[in-house]
Amino acid sequence: MAAERMGFEEYCRDTFDPKKIFSKPECLKGYRVISATQYILGPSCANYLAELGAEVIKVELPRRGEPMRHTTPFNEPKLYPLSRWMPNMGTGLGFFGANHNEYFLSVDFHKPEGVEIMKMLAAKSDVQVENYRAGTFDRWGIGYRQLSQINPRLIYQWLGGFGGWGPGRKRASYDILGQAQGGCFSVTGWPVKRGGLPSKHTIWIMDYWGGLMAAFQIIACLYWRDNISGLGNFMEYSQVQGAQRHLSDCIALYGKYGLTAQRWGNWDVLLSVHGIIKCGKSSYPNSRNPQELEEGFILISAYTDEDFAKLCQVVNKPDLARKYARHPDRVKAEAQEEIYPALEGWAKDKTKEQVWEIMQKAGINSQPVWNNKEVSTNEHFLMRGDVHWIDDPNFGDVFSQGLPYKMSETPARHKWVFKPVGADNEYLLGKLCGFSKSKIAQLEADGII
Amino acid sequence: MAEKRKPTIPVLPWPAVPTPTPDEVYKGESDKAKEYPLYLESILRQSENFKKPEALSTIRVLDCSTNMIIGHWCSSLLSELGAEVIMVEPPGGDPLRKLTPFGRQEYMFEDNVTHEKVGARFLAECRSKQAITLNLESAEGREVLKKLAVQADVLIENAPPGDFDAKGIGYRQLSQINPRLVYCWVGQLGQWGPLKDKPGNLDPTAQAACGFVHGTGAPSSFGGTPTRSGWWMCDQVGGTTAAIGIMAALHYRERVSGRGQFVESTGAAGVIRILDYNWGWYGVDGSIRPRYGNWDLAINIYAVNPCKDGQIMVGGGHDRLWYRIWRTVGKDLPAVEQHIVEDPNLREVTARLPHYKQVQTYTSMCEWMKDNTRSEAETKLQAEEVASGGVSFIDEVCEFPHYKYRGHMEVVDDTLYGSVLIGASAFIGHRTPGRVKWIGRPTGYDNEDVYRRLLGFTKADMDGLKKKGVI
Fold it and tell me: Which among B217, B349, B432 has the least Cβ separation from residue A199?
């Protein structure tokens, strides 16, 4: 076979070629997921299943849709229309990234007719993802207790901030609260003596990553249901608990030694040299964009003794090479406080590209800090489909994040970014509920869909 | 020298403050109000976990990754749901075992059999796994790996691109001898493409490359710089996406094809996938997302700001919460409330988003917060059902009553390592919850068990291999 004779890189390019994705089968074909979710945590969870080929039905409140549609940076960019009823409004980019490939149904489940629709959908679905306040769906008669009677094979995933039980069960949460009260802020950013504060991750990470965790758990439950037990399941994912799972090693150090992990800025507590330094010059001194006028930053990674010796040679610091020849000496806080400023002194008349080139020539690992324009135009990420253009049926050419993992046989894929509110009402209600055209028109007139 | 620096303050056993009891938690609630939470407790409480089955108990995983957390994180997720995970390390162990913050040996962990020291970062992701040693640089070692791979469902590795393939133990070769194998490569930027990984690339390489570092931290005008995450965050995100790919491949194998496949996951692509609207925004008008510190570009109020004893998060994007927040502020400072709610330019949710409006909002808010501690502000805001919470440090996190009550962290009373507090499995579930069975294993601790059980090696076989440096 030709594949065996190819060079490895060529083989990978061929195997994972983004252009071949649509000629391969989908992993979760035939599974139906109800996503009664809003914001990011719940929607992203269902979205990862949609990327793998599940039919995900996003249920939103009629007309305005979910709140994330009205969230966009500085209130500027939007994709039009919001819905067929509101052609002059658009969907904000906050909605982007958590709703690819989905079908959009609008249902007001505050109304009994809406609850009936939800039950009809659950009867023929495999998964329900939901992130309303814990117990709300139970009260409305469409929680796990009721739906598992209708469909014992249903896998019910609830996601939220603090979980449905325990002393904090009534508390509301958002991503940034999960980051703050979960402990993530406390270890990110510079220490006070270097002018830093506890810092937020730019991403709504406890939402998006929480969704990943829950999506993994759902596929594992599908595996268990379909290959072993035949049974449905109920899972609860708490966003703040995700933060504790993240920081497991800090928790271990607290438990055994009473240590409280602190911030260490752009350096690394475990390895040295393995930190991000400032280069004195901007890569785009003539740009009109303030983002590009800033000085560059670059990660220098020379933590082995051999690489550190090479690095000291490159930056002409033989004294540091002698003093910190061994990693145990080099990784100490005081050593790091001496080494990194010396590196920054060396880089102060250089751009990040110049430093990168010097490091590459010397065989030292390094990585410039790129902004999202530099990532978006980078051949590597475009070739791999880590970012890509989607020819969207509603919104035209849209640039989007790509797929986070590659699969040789059943790759995940993006078909469209999202659709207007209620875009698939007729299709879904006709197909799954058997509603006639006039019935659907009546439901719409009554404000139920 | 090192011993001298260790503080002599006694460390209280965790929890320093007792965990609340159910009676305390639900005191004063009506039967109706506590019915649902108690129902959830009855089906979800972790104390019942070991009476329940495991979702992945039929899966065997070989985790051949070293140096990075990405592979170990991925196999941890599988092991929490019941997979049998065998860590295949080079003789002497994964170099990651030896890493400890600032090289402080006195803060490492030690087992009571080999007395080998291991750092917290590694130990926390060694949960419920077995540890064997195998030298893949030797031809004999590679033959042993092949024999193991025949009996495995999943293999995870993070060697430099093409390394395993060149050694005859890559996907192309192993899928010949075990077509059902799901083979997963994990790394920073990829095993193919112009920027493919070089030997020694570790997180935060992916953080710097994917746009995350550039976007994190305060703007330059506020004295900030691009900032990395405090942990190896790309490893954890990329490890989670790897686990999804592996799980999906296993499911497809059982349900449809009967065959495994080749999966690749990188920290960079994982974080790019979840980097909000960065890419859409660039596509619309070429915008480069700026750093915005602890505020949010797309929601106002939704930020962390300083208060009297630290920092506190307050969130309330939509109208209902907006007015509740200012009502709370107005109880102490009526003029501030008036200044905001009477401003016609702040009435619409979307009108509050431009930068100068955010500055106005948070300046007013900090007027109030500077006289309130985290817990005072939290209490006042939560009385109005506003989402808020202080920025917590690890000691506060570990002693937070809600987390303790729900078992977000647990003491694993380990045969080898004694009592170790760790972040518990986040997979809370009714029928197949995640769990931690033991905290970890010293280097090569399970050689005897695994090689005997899976390959039928005798004591003489193992002694011979050990002498040759193969295991």
Answer: B217
